[in-house]
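Standup notes
- DV: blocked on the single-chain target, sequence here:
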Amino acid sequence: MRNATSRKTTLGGIGLTAVAALLLTGCGGGDGGGDSANAGTLDGAELTAGSKEFTESVVLSQITALALEDAGASIEDQTGISGSATVREALETDEIDFYWDYTGTGWVNILGNTTEDVPEDLFAAVSEADAENGIAWLDPAPFENTYRIAVKQDFADENSLVTQSDAAEFINANPDQSRVCAASEFINRDDGLPGLEEAYGFEFSEVVELELNLIYTQVGDTCEFGEVFSTDARIASNDMVVLEDDQEFFVEYQGAMTLRQETLDEYPAIAEIMAPISEKLTNETMMELNGKVDTDGENPRDVAEEWLQDQGLIGG
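- DV (later): unblocked, structure below
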């Protein structure tokens, strides 16, 4: 049990019921894409896009929705669902038809495994096991967005913090400088805060629970440490440094589109449409796209559309 009482700020984070009533401007029936190579391949398909609440998940969903609309599908938008368990339930209960998830989340949170004895080919293990649940994982993208702990650059320099082991030693010796800002899901996941503290043998003196998007600006102010996502452009824009996971606690979080197998069986063209798109989603690409939303204030759908057109992946 923690000695300090966690504080919570509840800002942002939209639940499934609220999101269901909000369709983002521009989503709707596809026109076959005009000059698109995929024009007409999904004519008549009516699908619902889902995502988790953070920027990257929303951007990926918009990329997918635009690509499927370009092929003729009609897409309803229910992005921004709060929490991995909630969006997964929405997929399983047919409230949404697809969303992007991560291999680490699939292995631990969905399939109920631990962060120990992780298979070498994690994607193969997750996709094979989840097939028994009627869920298909399309070929993964080359980017990996894993949990990390970050601090301000000057704080890292002053205290010689490079690795998570360095941080554990520092925290144990300096409990008055060991507050962490983190979102609810990370605080409660076995592959998040509880497992991290156990693996490295330390405990933050206080956990300040914040909406995920607030964390980046509060590190160095409200907290010395903060939960971050490794492909988030706000790490650099807020002059933060990510601590190396030198004991390799965090599981690989490779991104992949998930959908019900029955949906894929009905519309097998989805896999063909998404394959060349997924191949281009590198770590650098995701950081750039995330930054356009989080740092530059652009609309996720506009960012997704511009990127797809620039890459020649949808018709103009």
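- Follow-up: Residues 1-31 have pLDDT under 50 and may be disordered.
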